[in-house]
Design goal:
244 residues; Cobalt-precorrin-4 Transmethylase, domain 1; Methyltransferase, Cobalt-precorrin-4 Transmethylase, Domain 2; 2 domains; five-stranded mixed sheet; 9 helices
């Protein structure tokens, strides 16, 4: 059995009872940083063995699979949030499923969903891009393609690159583009900004440095007829209809 266990973004109270039970049941917990996961385990009295899991190292994936093949109950966690969602885990899950190992995905914290709910942006859907490629041309291509769907676009960004990204987005898509920036979600110094790219640059540009995990949500430029469509398409309605 492999448990996929989301861990708190910052506030330890967000670890669910079911997640705690899965970790306590596990013989081994595969994690990004054993020191960080050790603190979480100590807080909840979890005594499972911790093993570092590196998605980019095939030997690490193989060692984890050996545990599962031997019948050990194991869990995979990330440093914060849901494994496999812009975090390690998907290769192990794919191999486990391919070999018939039972996989249990436990609901829990996810920065993208937490930020989106707090943003006040249209909730009819979104496009999640996670961490963007490094090349500017690839970044522009990825965001432009996502914008064609007319949905908010969710991006994870490093605090060290946030201002650079905001400047790039303002240059390519317009300084007046609507943006939501969430930093340090659920933590003591949580900060959320909603406004334009120009306003975000002014707001965050005053800092000597920016710290913490960052989630950015961009609202696509409105095309002709968008306002009318928003009035017609009410999220949550029509789920039982057979029409498409």
């Amino acid at each position: 059995m492999l448990h996929i266990v989301p861990t708190p973004l910052g506030n330890l109270d967000d670890l669910s009872p079911r997640a705690v039970a899965a970790l306590k049941e596990s013989r081994v917990i595969f994690c990004e940083d054993t020191r960080r996961t050790a603190r979480l385990c100590a807080h909840f009295g979890i005594t499972a063995r911790l093993e570092r899991y590196n998605e980019h190292d095939e030997k690490s994936v193989s060692r984890a699979m050996e545990r599962l093949r031997a019948g050990d109950v194991c869990s995979v966690v990330s440093d914060g949030g849901t494994p496999c969602v812009s975090d390690p885990g998907w290769k192990l899950v794919a191999q486990a499923r391919g070999e018939g190992v039972a996989v249990d995905s436990i609901p829990g914290p996810c920065a993208a969903i937490t930020a989106f709910a707090a943003s006040g942006m249209p909730v009819g859907g979104f496009v999640f891009l996670g961490f963007l490629p490094r090349k500017p041309s690839k970044i522009e291509q990825s965001i432009s393609a996502a914008f064609t769907l007319g949905k908010p676009v969710i991006i994870y960004e490093s605090p060290y690159r946030l201002l650079k990204f905001l400047r790039f987005a303002a240059e390519k898509f317009g300084a007046g583009l609507d943006v939501f920036v969430a930093r340090e979600l659920t933590k003591l110094h949580e900060e959320c900004f909603r406004g334009t790219l120009e306003g975000a640059l002014a707001h965050f540009g005053k800092r000597d440095r920016i710290l913490g995990e960052v989630c950015v949500i961009l609202l696509p430029p409105k095309a002709d007829g968008d306002e009318a469509r928003e009035e017609e398409e009410v999220p949550g309605e029509g789920h039982d209809s057979e029409d498409y």
